[in-house]
Amino acid sequence: MSLLELDNVTLRFGGVVAVNKVSFSVEEGEVFALVGPNGAGKSTIFNLISRIYDPAEGDIRFDGKSILSRQPHEIAALGIARTFQNIELFEQATVLQNLLVGRHRHRRSSFVTELLFTPSVRSEERRHREAVEKVIDFLDLQAYREKYIAGLPYGVRKVVEMGRALALEPKLLLLDEPASGLSVEETQDVAYWVEDIKKQMGITVLMVEHDMHLVSAVSDRVLALADGQMLSIGTAHEVQNDPKVIEAYIGTSDDEERAVA
Ligand SMILES: Nc1ncnc2c1ncn2[C@@H]1O[C@H](COP(=O)(O)OP(=O)(O)OP(=O)(O)O)[C@@H](O)[C@H]1O
């Protein structure tokens, strides 16, 4: 069974059809990438899956069940975690504190039991710490664990954001442009991490990304969109060589995207 299914999903903003009858499914254990020129509808699809927007038509299913009746705050509890294009971390908190926030969906203790610091609260706290330490080791963040986000370089913040999402122990990880603003070396690290997230952690990844080197390196399948419409779906190689995709990219002003075409 597919982990995530979008079934004929449409969303309009006034006269703009941001997402037009889009259907695709993400299989458990795969890395699936959404690509396309600016304004193609990629972020809107992430926001639809995160339940920030309601589709005008169509259905979105996770683990075989429609999520359209769910509120945005319930999505993490289902096992869907995401990162954001513009990093969203608590600036005045440490890396460790930010990662512990990522554990909120697993918290069972109430305010009163936490206040009394009962044995069950203590063991729960220990479990959260262990899960977070695992993520710190995995992403090589030991040197930064007690550092405040506000003082960290951009590249490290991007990694911490990925860590915050991983700390949730999701089934599906949505990565919104994980390589944007990163150097070639940092992007290479992202490629290794995405591979390990899939292989070692067994987490399914849906990614929006402009960097086609990264997309080609890590994706099992790619969906290319333009103006809200599906253009092509297949391996990175198949999609990059699809004449419809080449035509859509040639119309853009982005040099990197043109180079891809
Ligand atoms: N909140 C909104 N209100 C009105 N129009 C919107 C809104 N969000 C997106 N759009 C429009 O919907 C279309 C799809 O935008 P979207 O941000 O999903 O594209 P994208 O593929 O993520 O682009 P980018 O690569 O630049 O992030 C665009 O025409 C955009 O202007």
From TrEMBL:
CDD domains named in the record: ABC_Mj1267_LivG_branched
Limits of the ABC transporter domain: 4-252
The entry's keywords: ATP-binding, Nucleotide-binding, Transport
Highest taxon above the source species: Bacteria
Transmembrane segments: none
GO MF terms, alphabetically ordered: ATP binding; ATP hydrolysis activity
GO cellular-component term (any): plasma membrane
Pfam families given in the database record: ABC_tran, BCA_ABC_TP_C
Protein name: ABC transporter ATP-binding protein
